[in-house]
Amino acid sequence: MNDQLQQVTHIDNIRLAEDGSSVTILDQTQLPNRTEYLTLRTPEEMYEAILLLRVRGAPAIGICAGYCMYVLARQMDERDYDAFARRFHELKEYLNSSRPTAVNLSWALNRMERVVTNHAGEPVEEILKLLEQECKAIHQEDIQMCRAISEYGLTLLKDGDGILTHCNAGPLATSRYGTALGPLFLGKERGMNFKVFADETRPLLQGARLTSYELQKGGIDVTLICDNMASIVMKNGWINACLVGCDRVAANGDAANKIGTSGVAILAKHYGIPFYVLGPTSTIDLSCKTGDDIEIELRDQKEIREKFYAEPMALPEVKCYNPAFDVTDHTLITGIVTEKGICYPPYTQSLAQLFQSEN
Ligand code: MRU
Q: What biological processes does GO assign it (predicted)?
C-alpha cells in the first residue's frame, strides 16, 4: 500500500490519552482546510463535540462516546458502588442526548453501562479497569468490522466502476477504511480503479469537506457534485452502483442515513442502478420495526440560511426545515453490507439471521 493511501485509511481520528485523562479527536469541522486536534476532558466538551459534528459518523460517535465514559468514570470521586453507578448513568444519559439518530451512540454507551451494572457491588477500581478494556474493545472491533465490510463490499464491484456516494462514510467517520468508502480504498490497495462521484451533501457539506478530501488524498478518482446533480450523472451512464453508510437500520431494512440519501435511492431505482447500504451490525436496531420508529434529528435552521456563506443567503425570518437524516425505504435497497455478510431482501429475515448466528 502506498504511504498516502495508508495515511488516509489509518487516520488517527479518535485517541484515548495513555493515562486515561482525556480523549483527543480530529476536529472534522475544520477539514479540509485545517488539521486540528481537540482534547476533550469535561462532559460539556464531549457533548459539544458530538452535537457540533466535530466527531461525526455513526461508528466514530460510538467509539468516541465509549472513551468519553471511561474518562468521565475515572474523574468521579464516588467510591461507593451505588453512588458511582448513579453518576455514571446520569453522565451516560447526558451524552446520549447529544444526537438522537445514530444508534451507535446509545449502543456504545449502553455497552459501557453494562460493564458497571454487570459488576454491581464490586470495587470501583476494578470496574474502571473493565471500562478501559471495554472502550478499547469497541474501537478494535470497529477496525475489524470496517475491514470485513470493505471485503464484502468489494465483491459487489468491478474494476473501473463508476460509484456515487452521499455524505461521508469513510475512515473519518469510523476507525479505519470506513464503511461505504471502505471497498473503494481496499480496491485501490489491490490495484483497482473507480470513478467516484461524491454528493456535496447540503447543508453541512460532509461530501465536499470530508469524502472528496479522503478520496483525493487516497489517490482515488473523485468528482465532487452538488446534490441536485446526482440524476444527471446517473442518466449519463456514469454510475454502476451507489454506496452509502447508515445511522440506524430498522428490522425491515429501512435505513436512516444523511438527509438526501433516500432521494439518491429513488433516482437509482429509476435508472436501474444497484443501491447498497453499508454498515456494521452495531448500526442495526431490531427494536425499530420500521423506519417510522427512527427519531430524526432536527438541527439549527441557521445551518441552511447562513453556514459556510460569506453572508446569509436567506432572510433571517425565513422558515427553514433542517432534518439531518432521512429514511430510505427497504424496497429501494439492493443489499445491506455488514461485517457478517451481505443481506438481501426480505430484510426482516436476513437481518434477524445475522443476530441469530451470534447465539
Ligand atoms: O450527521 P453526520 O455527518 O454524523 O451523518 C453521517 C452519516 O449520515 C453517515 O453516512 C453515517 O453515519 C455512516 S458513517 C460510516
A: L-methionine salvage from methylthioadenosine
Query: Is residue 1 over pLDDT 80?
Result: no
- What is the C-alpha separation between 67 and 191, in angstroms, rounded? 36
Half-sphere exposure of 12 (CA within 13 A, CB side): 9
Ligand 1 in reach of 188 Cβ (< 6 A):
no
State pTM to two decimals.
0.97
Mean pLDDT estimate for the chain = 97
E runs forming strands in 192-253 = 195-199, 221-225, 241-244, 248-249
Strand order from edge to edge, sheet including 221-225: 221-225, 195-199, 162-165, 241-244, 275-278, 335-338, 341-343
Whether 256 is in the pocket of ligand 1, judged by its Cβ within 6 Å, is: no
Task: Write down the catalytic residue from 247, 254, 285, 326.
Answer: 247
* pLDDT tens figures, 109-129: 999 999 999 999 999 999 999
User: Is 247 among the residues known to form the active site?
Assistant: yes
The amino acid at 238: W
If 0-12 CB within 10 Å is exposed, 13-18 middle and 19+ buried, where does residue 290 land? middle
DSSP-based three-state secondary structure for 287: coil
Query: Is the CB of residue 153 below 6 angstroms from any atom belonging to ligand 1?
Result: no
Q: Which residues of 126-139 are buried (b: 16+ CB within 10 A; e: fewer)?
A: ebbeebbebbeebb
